Amino acid sequence: MYLAFWYSPFLLKSLGPSLFGLVPLITSLTAYLAIISGSIDSSVGRSLSMAIQKGDENQARCIVNTAFKLYLLITLLFLVLGYFAWNYLDVLIKLPEAAVSDAKWLLIAVFSTFCLTAQTAPFKSALFAHNLIYIDRIILVVSYSISVGVAVGFFHYFEPSLWGVAIGNFSGGIITAFFSILVAYVLMPYLRLSVRLFDREVAKGIVFIGGWLVVNLIGSLLYLKIDLLVVNHLFGPVSTGLYAIVLQLSNLLRIFSGQIISAFTPSFMYRMAENDMLGLFVYSRFCIRLLGVVMALLIGGMCGFGDVFLTLWVGSEYAMLHGILCIALFHLSVNISVSPLFSVQIATGNVRIPGIVTLVLGVVNLGLAIFLAGFAGWGLYGIASAGAIALTAKNTLFTPVYNAKLLNQPWYIYLRDILVIVTATFFVGALSYVINHTAVIDSWVKLIGSGIAVAIIYFPLAWFLVFNHEDRSRICNPKLAVFLSRFRLHKKRDDS
After folding, report:
1. Is residue 445 part of a domain?
2. Per the CB 3.0–4.6 Å rule, which of 159, 168, 310, 413 could disulfide with 150?
């Protein structure tokens, strides 16, 4: 997180806004392909977790081999699409004339890295299935560190360019692939790749779950990845670079929350394997509250201290992005906090209806972004507002209600938690704003000190007002919380 936080302003200052904006923009092109690989990842992880939970080594071996061959087909498709993207890159996005060649090399590196890591994804599923997500995070940290180190070294010894970013990106991909395969064979010594081992029924199960996840992820991309392309086509490379600054903060928050969510997800799969629906419900509410409390502090703080934060992070000339930052970040307090509910949908196999809803509202987001930014004249504010409106509508009107019905709970039960999280974010944002405008904050030390002051006031209130007794027990003593949860579950079953 710290390295990514430092790397963005480094690239901005080294390359300038126009070229800096091309880095996340070109990277986002592979995100449109990740809708396929990402859906297969989740489906394979789900199937492999259940096989390992049952101790079925033959089934686990079959799942990995079947997934490996599915990924071979996907990788070939990616290579073909990558060629067309390379050939028509200047049509897909607006590029500065002097940067066309370097941008194409960056595209080659990004696509090559993506294909390499996609092909090793079945091996990474072993970490997910064994609930060893922290090892996966260590691998990602090491590979990202090497990627950044190579790019910085290139910038130091040669002229800063997209070439350096491209070489760094590919170097990190090689490290990820190598360690993913190595760790998988350590965890699953019985794992062997076989040309003949391919199970059609397993493939159908993976593709069925994955197919509807593809629909879901397409909709998600229309929320999360389309905005930078819209900015590029409507306003050009410079505005793309400016919007990319705000987008990087949004991405950092998503990456950070993703680390937390990934630690929760295997527990959802295990509860589903035991058909523990009440356990799924109780655990999902705890995850939402825990994630919401953390995100309320981060997002409220960033909004309240936004102008100071941007000044210290990328320079005073970018402090004018404060308003866009608030619009782009505040709604994430809700939309990130409900993320554990997506794991419930995957664990239970109920991905069809969420996929359709996400796709429809993703299209609405695209149309609303073009209308507000172009026809209504809101500019960058319109694109940020469109994402906030469409994504929040989905994750307040549909996701919590659908999951409540899925787990046989009152339709409004999750909305209570969401309301508390929004209130907490408002509280932190207002408190941060007051401190920001009553104190002189002109250094990182003062900003961090102010943030700690907000946290000291906020966390005790959240501890008693947001978390219940079982939540506090789970945080302080996870083993005791598991005992209490199982005791209450058996008691309810006996009563019924």
Report:
1. no
2. 168
Q: What is the pTM of this model?
A: 0.75
The model's pLDDT over 263-294, given as tens digits with 9 standing for 90+, comes to: 777 778 778 777 888 888 999 999 999 999 99
Cα(476)–Cα(483) distance, rounded to whole angstroms?
A: 13
Q: Which domain holds residue 95?
A: 1-198
Phi, psi of 199 (to 5 degrees): -105, 120
CA–CA distance, 337 with 226 (Å, rounded to integer)? 22
Distance CA 305, CA 315 (A): 14
Token look-up 């299209």 returns 363
Q: How far is CA 252 from CA 154, 164, 209, 211, 334, in A?
A: 24, 22, 28, 28, 16
Contact 180, 139 (CB under 8 A): yes
Structure tokens at 392: 């929040």
DSSP string for 361-380:
HHHHHHHHHHIIIIIS--TH
Cα dihedral across residues 52, 56, 60, 61: positive or negative: positive
Is 448 a member of any domain? no
The Cα angle at residue 90 between residues 72 and 118, in degrees rounded to 5: 20
- pLDDT: which is higher, 210 or 409: 409
**Does 103 map to a domain?**
yes
pLDDT in tens, 22-43: 888 887 777 656 655 655 666 6
Q: How many CA atoms lie within 13 A of 302 on its CB side?
A: 25
Q: Where are the beta strands (DSSP E) in 331-443?
A: none
Taking the C-alpha atoms of residue 329 and residue 383, their distance in angstroms, rounded to an integer, is 13
DSSP string computed for 43-57: HHHHHHHHHHHTT-H
CB atoms within 10 A of CB 134: 12
Collapse the DSSP code of 436 into the 3-class scheme (helix H, G, I; strand E, B; otherwise coil) and give the result.
helix
- The widest CA-to-CA distance across the chain, in whole angstroms, is 73
- DSSP-assigned states of every residue in 17-82: HHHHHHHHHHHHHHHHHHHHHHHHHHHHHHHHHHHHHTT-HHHHHHHHHHHHHHHHHHHHHHHHHH
Closest CA to 327 of 257, 380, 373: 380
Tokens of 268: 């959802």
DSSP string, 239-304: HHHHHHHHHHHHHHHHHHHHHHHHHHHHHHHHHHHTT-HHHHHHHHHHHHHHHHHHHHHHHHHHHH
**Average pLDDT of the residues in 160-182:** 86
How many domains does the chain contain in total?
1
Q: Which two tokens stand for residue 111?
A: 């696509």
